[in-house]
Amino acid sequence: MSIFFSVREAVEMAISTERSGQAFYQTASKLAREKSLEELFRGLAEEEEKHLKTFQGFYDTLKERPETTPYNWEEAKLYLKALVDSRFFTGPDTAINLAREAK
């Protein structure tokens, strides 16, 4: 079954992904034992922040357009959150677990 998303939905997924990525890299930076890794992860978190601002700008442009809103928004939000959570960064806990495994 094919599922189609509006532009607004795609931008919302991108925003969620960037937030998750930023949290992941911030946590990884705090857990890094080497200065070079800490700086690398901090830099990646900063890049995620730039991406987030870009997508937020797109979203602000789209939010006034009613044709970008799905019929059943609550159901769509739950689906999109599950999709993003399962396919991208899974949050700071993942960074903590990866750091523990790397010991």
Structure described in brief:
76% of the residues lie in helices and 0% in strands.
**pLDDT < 50 stretches:** none
Mean pLDDT: 78
Q: What is the approximate shape?
A: elongated
Counted up, domains total 1
Q: Helix-strand pattern, N to C?
A: HHHH
Residues in helices, as a percent range: over 70%
GO molecular function, one term: oxidoreductase activity
Domain Rubrerythrin diiron-binding: 9-81
InterPro entries: Ferritin-like (IPR012347), Ferritin-like_SF (IPR009078), Rr_diiron-bd_dom (IPR003251)
Protein name: Rubrerythrin diiron-binding domain-containing protein
Task: Throw out a few tags for this protein.
mainly alpha, 103 residues, elongated
Structure explained in plain terms:
The chain is 76% helix and 0% strand. Helix 1 packs antiparallel against helix 2 (35-62), helix 1 (7-31) runs parallel beside helix 3 (73-87) and helix 1 (7-31) packs parallel to helix 4. The mean pLDDT is 78. It is elongated. The chain contains four helices and no strands. It has one domain (7-101). The chain is mainly α. The longest helix is centred in the middle third of the chain and has 28 residues, at 35-62. The chain has helices spanning 7-31, 35-62, 73-87, 92-101.
